[in-house]
Write a structure and sequence with these properties.
single chain, 68 residues, 75% helix, elongated
Length: 68
């Protein structure tokens, strides 16, 4: 009995399917973590309301407080 070889197209499809499945599993993990979901929601509200700092501002602020 000869082994059936996967075509290049088959391998590509399997690789893409694996990637999608991994993304789905990661999404399920995130959604199962109530604290993380709440944190994401708070972050979105902060962005909408403008409660954010530019990277350089954040570094200056942390340096001035001795935290960087």
């Amino acid at each position: 009995m000869s082994k059936a070889l996967l075509t290049k197209r088959d391998r590509k499809l399997l690789t893409e399917t694996k990637k999608i499945m991994e993304e789905i599993l990661e999404t399920q993990e995130v959604l199962a973590d109530r604290r993380l979901v709440d944190s994401i929601k708070r972050s979105k509200r902060d962005l909408k309301s403008g409660r954010v700092l530019e990277w350089e501002q954040l570094k200056r602020e942390l340096k001035s407080k001795g935290k960087l």
